[in-house]
Design brief:
With 141 residues, the protein is an alpha+beta fold. It folds into two domains: 56 residues; 60 residues, Nucleic acid-binding proteins (OB fold (Dihydrolipoamide Acetyltransferase, E2P), Beta Barrel). Helices cover 40% and strands 22% of the residues. The protein is built from three helices and five strands, in the order H-H-H-E-E-E-E-E. Strand 1 and strand 2 form a beta hairpin. It is rod-shaped and about 75 Å long.
Length: 141
Amino acid sequence: MTTFTRYTLLQVPSWLLLALLLIGLHHWIALSPWVAIGLLALWVVKDFLLYPFVRSAYEPSAQSASKQLIGTQGIARERLAPHGYVQVRGELWRAIAEPPDRPILPGTPIRVRDADGLTLIVSADSPPAARSPAQEPPSAR
């Protein structure tokens, strides 16, 4: 099934509910049938205009949030021996240290290597080489 078909089929219930509401308004307040049809048509057009913006959410191959973090850096917030918590992009994630026999201490930079559900598999990331005072920008001195 294509992404567009999936999106369209998931919009059909809202179209049906709106149609029922408009039929009810037609009977209760004598809403013109042409106004009701126009409102329903505007609603359907709105859904199709939004499709390009929400398409990725309907794609079957969309990666989970944890898989999107693979390759990013973070900080160990507690000792990972091998389980613990890390902070990546401002969020706390449960993590497992890789390799499991090397604990990662709090405050150590980490890199996300993989994800298993909502658990990140991380390894200690080597800190960037220290700059010599001659390499520092003038404002840092």
